[in-house]
Amino acid sequence: MSKNNKAYIGISFIILIFGIWAIPKIVAKFQKSDLPVIGPVPQFELTDQDGKKISNKDYLGKVYVVEFFFTTCPTICPVMNQNMLKLQDAFYGNPDFGIASISINPEYDTPQILKEHAKELGAKHYNWHFLTGDKQYIHNLAVKGFNLYAGENSKVPGGFEHSGLFALVDKDGMIRSRKDSYGNPITYYDGLEESGVEAIKEDIKELLEE
């Protein structure tokens, strides 16, 4: 056997071994993760801090997180926003990641107020939209669309109360979540605790690879 033939066989063997090693990794990258599908994200169209109309369709092709908050909230919203900042920092510069922060007090939270709030907060990701619109529309979106409580209550600090949960949406516009220790989908992530932030961060990475 000539030296050229031996070299050819040697190279072919290396390519074969590499292929056997690499194929599972390539396949895994394009496989769906095991995060359960909860259902389609509710359709919405709202106005962001730059006065631009933003809908759920603008987020297609992106993995994004949804929260309901308001800028004058004296209780849980600052914690939620700070935890969103952690997600922004973890995926900063990734065009396939986004955030939708929807105000439940839109009569006060105009685009200008939201723009100032975003600046003070340090929100810099170009896919982080602070959204406002009609109050009843937004409350219906939260309660009937996402099944997350939001409403007015004059007896609580700030005059509004709402859920402290984050919703995770995949590139196809489907709400996804991990399972609990009993094998049931948690549906939403705790936006107030570090454990919830770390969990959603891990699952965002997983969905970005789908």
Please summarize what this structure is:
The chain is α+β, with helices and mostly antiparallel strands and 210 residues long. It has 2 domains: 1-31; 37-208, 3-Layer(aba) Sandwich (Glutaredoxin), CATH 3.40.30. Helices cover 38% and strands 21% of the residues.
Word description of this protein:
This protein has 2 domains: about 1-30; about 35-210, Glutaredoxin. About 35% of the residues are buried. Helices cover about 40% and strands about 20% of the residues. The longest helix is centred in the first third of the chain and has 28 residues, at about 5-30. The strands form 3 sheets. Strands 1, 4, 5, 6, 9, 10 and 11 form a 7-stranded mixed sheet that branches. It has a two-stranded antiparallel sheet with strand order 2-3. The model is unreliable at about 15-20 and about 20-30 (pLDDT under 50). It has 5 helices and 11 strands, in the order H-E-E-E-E-H-E-H-E-H-E-E-E-E-E-H. The protein is globular, with a radius of gyration of 22 Å. With about 210 residues, it is of the alpha+beta class. The protein has helices spanning about 5-30, 75-90, 110-120, 135-145, 195-210, and strands at about 35-40, 45, 55, 65-70, 95-105, 130, 150, 160, 165-170, 175, 190.
